[in-house]
Design goal:
It is built from four helices and no strands. It is mainly α and 84 residues long. The chain has one domain (9-78). The chain is elongated.
């Protein structure tokens, strides 16, 4: 079934970039991304999107941690011994 989508320029550019780096045509990459996104449970999918958006908003406001701070937090939170 043919389907035509109008993508915002930023999304189209990113899709083209990803397709090129993976050695795929843009339609195959779009199909792979859609299949991956649709494979998630609906609730998990939207929770993940909200978390990503919060992170992007924080970054835009200059609220972010260094890699060292992030690794230290994950080590504390999950009892890990990762190094940055």
């Amino acid at each position: 079934m043919p389907l035509t989508l109008t993508l915002p320029p930023k999304i189209e550019a990113l899709l083209r970039q990803r397709a090129e780096s993976a050695g795929l045509d843009i339609a195959s990459m779009a199909l792979a991304i859609l299949a991956f996104g649709l494979s998630f449970d609906e609730r998990d999918f939207f929770e993940a999107l909200e978390g990503i958006q919060r992170g992007l908003d924080d970054f835009d406001r200059g609220q972010f941690s260094s890699l060292e701070e992030f690794v230290a937090e994950q080590n504390r939170k999950y009892g890990l011994s990762l190094e940055a």
